[in-house]
Each structure stands twice: as structure tokens, then as C-alpha cells.
Amino acid sequence: MQGVSREAHARLLPLQQMKPAVRIVFAPLFHRSKRVRDQGLKLHGQARGRTVWIDPRGKNVARTLLHELIHVQHPSWTEQRVTAEEARRWDRMTWRRIAELYRMLGSAKLEGESD
Ligand SMILES: [Zn+2]
Questions:
Q1: Would you kindly state where each structural domain of the chain is located, as residue ranges?
Q2: Quick check: 71 and 31 in contact, CB under 8 A?
Q3: Taking all residues of the chain, what is their mean pLDDT, rounded to a whole number?
Q4: In angstroms, what is the span from residue 2 Cα to ligand 1's centroid?
Q5: What architecture (CATH level 2) is domain 6-110?
Q6: What separation in Å is there between the alpha carbon of 44 and the centre of ligand 1?
Q7: pLDDT digit string, tens, across residues 64-88
């Protein structure tokens, strides 16, 4: 897209059109991170490369997916910046965009399941 920075362009793309595709895996993450556990928190999601892991027991799994997709799009961003961007985007999302996040979750694998 001309006249638009790569980063701004990535922000305009619907999330489900991210290329290469993002692999989503459901896994029991809640107590997997000692650092998070020691803070009395639960780990809801994790991203590495183009793979996102989500604990399906979370209260807002679609929002967790949004958060992790921002990590995928911006691997260098701090947790604070990702969380701020997640809040900014979530508040502006239409019901359709939120529905698209749920649809993406429909293609998720369960941990240990082959592709
Ligand atoms: Zn995060």
C-alpha cells in the first residue's frame, strides 16, 4: 500500500488475513509459567514466532487471542505496549471483528494433536 508505512498497513489488515498464517494451539497454560504463578496470576496466552498458545479456560479467550496476535505482529514491543494496543483495539472493535476472532479460534489445534 503506497504512502502507508508497513506497520500502519499491518494494522489495517483484518487479523485473519495475517500472512503467513498464525497457528493457534489450545493448551493448559494457567500455571505453566513460574514467573506468572509467583505473581499470583495465571498465564492466559503465549506467542512465539507464528504460533499462539491460548488457555481455553480464560474468561475472554477472544481478547487473549487479540493480545497474542499483536505480539506476533510486533515481536519487539514490550508487554506494556502490547497491552495498551490490545485495549485500544478491543474498544474499537465491532461485533463482526470480535466474531472473526472467535472464528479463528475454530481452527485451533489442541496441544499434542497433529496438524
Ligand atoms: Zn503479552
A1: 6-110
A2: no
A3: 88
A4: 31
A5: 2-Layer Sandwich (3.30)
A6: 9
A7: 999 999 999 999 999 999 999 999 9
